[in-house]
């Protein structure tokens, strides 16, 4: 049974599960491929099919529970003291978004319309999970490649975690954005967007509704950030036209990374606003101060001890250079940015 | 030229150096081996030899500047605005502690007396670097094994970084300890020590002056923490008897990890108090609220996207189980804990 424990000094929460050594998945058929639907836990939702029963082939994007979830929605939420320490039950959700029925496709190889279905799946699951007041934050991430920590089959998928506590990295962003707003009465991400679009050196690509930039203080080589150009706190409120626009930009960005870095491993994180209903009266200025965004962190280098232990990153590529290389990579003009 | 940049939302500092793609070191003789002293930058200090000129063989532990330092002490300290952002010059120090003249020895294979020389080198360099008021924190770390990010030759070494800003992970610990002290007027680490020694389930080993425990909210499988049993804010004030005692405990702990995990990759971090002179009047209760400690993080699993993006770790081994396995591993009673 998994349990949550809090570090008494830093406040960092950890999920503990006694699963060691991790049993490898049974070799054999890929459970994410079309036709193998019976090998996954029951389907939560599917996209891209009409008139199809659940757990059958014919879908384009499919969401299932994780076979070995770090957290379970069925667990009652109970925070408790464990002598001097703080602990909680492993309440939450851990779902898998299977991005395509085809084993070999990477996300970047799907059509813009197909990627928009993946984004719709993210939005729908976030909306649904946020209906549960015990869930404080919903976090979407994707690990592509072994260096990025992908443990599940290489079949393209992303993961959705609903957490009963605010994870530390999101809390830092929320707190930083709130502090900036208190002092300046402006959203820090709107400030960054205006600055970057004016300056131009770190802009990779823009579309009608979004901008992809290389952040000023990039932690990793070729780190990218996608922001909606209009202030929006929650990803899941994005309309379908804008999702299609985002799908095109994301596809283009991933192809730029692949052409510059030769199919790099990467982590993708979606930071959407936390669930206000889980903490009434707490995030009072969040609609004004928080701005959802996607971070894409290519992992051409191993994160070493220095970075893990200090939270102080050393990055061998300036974001100005990364943006220029991603902007001007081979034949981008010919293929047309954002085209599917 | 390296530069420091601050993320405007989270306050995370990043060192940027345009070094990409990282040029591999010239193949050939290991610059850390005895007899090859001329292949390193000039020696800063050496231990374990008498009547020997600098940069000659005959040392047991040798400290040199990093060939490609992330930071340089010669850079003037200048914080500046860069349009809306915060930046600073790459002032600081980046040194290498070569732990043994022998290429094949791991730290755990050195004698207790030899390991005490390594610890003395850490203490002496911290003391020296803290004399520079521009240096806010000195950080010692060690990466063993490729999974832990070791990039330099496999010859046993640790690294010392002197930083002109407080790195985020240390700031979190300092802030957490300060908050605990404000509320309870007790050091959080003294509380943890008392709790753990009383409870016993997460204690790995104790010596006269130190205790090695598996932290309650361990982020990684078999994570270990070594704390002085008496409240001490700064590692570098440790006397030579206690350093010898610590060397024995560290050797024993590393051998326990190696016997349980089959020569694991690991990161070791030393968190010592920051340089009070660099920020007069700021760390007013630090002598009472901060307690130096060493974290050893074995890296049998890859840190995946979830952990990097959320700061929320999922650990498949409970610290109670980790401590029991490390405590009761093969023939520990026979070899005698702490013996060299």
Explain what you see.
- 2 copies of one chain form a homodimer.
- Chain A is an alpha+beta fold and 340 residues long.
- Chain A has a single domain (24-73, 89-335), classed as HIT-like (HIT family, subunit A), CATH 3.30.428.
- Chain A has helices spanning 112-129, 168-184, 188-199, 240-261, 286-289, 305-310, 319-327, 332-335; strands at 3-6, 13-16, 43-47, 61-65, 79-82, 85-89, 93-98, 137-144, 157-163, 203-206, 210-213, 224-228, 266-271, 293-298, 313-315.
- Chain A has a 10-stranded antiparallel β-sheet with strand order 3-4-7-9-8-13-14-12-11-10, sandwiched between helices. Chain A has a 4-stranded antiparallel β-sheet with strand order 2-1-6-5, with no helix packed on it.
- In chain A, helix 1 crosses helix 4 (240-261).
- The longest helix of chain A has 22 residues, at 240-261.
- Chain A starts with a strand and ends in a 5-residue tail after the last helix.
- Residues 331-340 of chain A have low confidence and may be disordered.
- Chains A and B meet through strand 2, strand 8, strand 9, helix 2 and helix 3 of A and strand 2, strand 8, strand 9, helix 2 and helix 3 of B.
- Strand 15 of chain A pairs parallel with strand 2 (13-16) of chain B, so a sheet runs across the interface.
Explain briefly what this protein structure is:
2 copies of one chain form a homodimer. Chain A has helices at residues 112-129, 168-184, 188-199, 240-261, 286-289, 305-310, 319-327, 332-335, and strands at residues 3-6, 13-16, 43-47, 61-65, 79-82, 85-89, 93-98, 137-144, 157-163, 203-206, 210-213, 224-228, 266-271, 293-298, 313-315.
């Amino acid at each position: 049974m998994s349990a949550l424990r809090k570090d008494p000094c830093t406040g960092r929460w950890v999920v503990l599960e006694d699963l060691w050594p991790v049993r490898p998945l049974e070799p054999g058929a890929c459970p994410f491929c079309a036709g193998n639907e019976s090998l996954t836990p029951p389907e939560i939702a599917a996209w891209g099919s009409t008139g199809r029963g659940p757990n059958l082939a014919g879908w384009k994007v499919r969401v299932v529970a994780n076979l070995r979830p770090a957290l379970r929605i069925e667990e009652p939420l109970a925070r408790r003291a464990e002598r001097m320490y703080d602990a909680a039950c492993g309440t939450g959700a851990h779902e898998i978004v299977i991005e395509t029925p085809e084993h070999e496709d990477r996300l970047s190889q799907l059509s813009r319309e197909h990627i928009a279905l993946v984004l719709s799946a993210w939005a729908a699951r976030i909306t649904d999970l946020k209906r549960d007041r015990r869930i404080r934050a919903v976090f979407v991430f994707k690990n592509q490649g072994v260096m990025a920590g992908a443990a599940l089959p290489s079949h393209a998928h992303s993961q959705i975690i609903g957490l009963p506590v605010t994870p530390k990295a999101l809390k830092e962003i929320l707190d930083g954005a709130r502090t900036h707003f208190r002092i300046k009465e402006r959203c820090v991400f709107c400030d960054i967007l205006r600055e970057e679009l004016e300056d131009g050196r770190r802009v990779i690509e823009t579309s009608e509704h979004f901008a992809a930039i290389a952040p000023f203080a990039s932690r990793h080589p070729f780190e990218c950030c996608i922001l909606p150009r209009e202030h929006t706190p929650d990803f899941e409120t994005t309309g379908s036209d804008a999702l299609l626009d985002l799908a095109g930009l994301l596809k283009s960005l991933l192809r730029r990374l692949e052409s510059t870095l030769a199919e790099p491993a990467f982590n993708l994180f979606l930071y959407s606003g936390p669930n206000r209903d889980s903490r009434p009266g707490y995030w009072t200025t969040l609609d004004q101060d928080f701005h959802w965004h996607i971070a894409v962190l290519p992992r051409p280098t191993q994160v070493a001890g220095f970075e893990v232990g200090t939270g102080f990153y050393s990055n061998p590529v300036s974001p100005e250079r990364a943006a220029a290389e991603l902007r001007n990579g081979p034949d981008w003009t010919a293929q047309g940015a954002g085209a599917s």
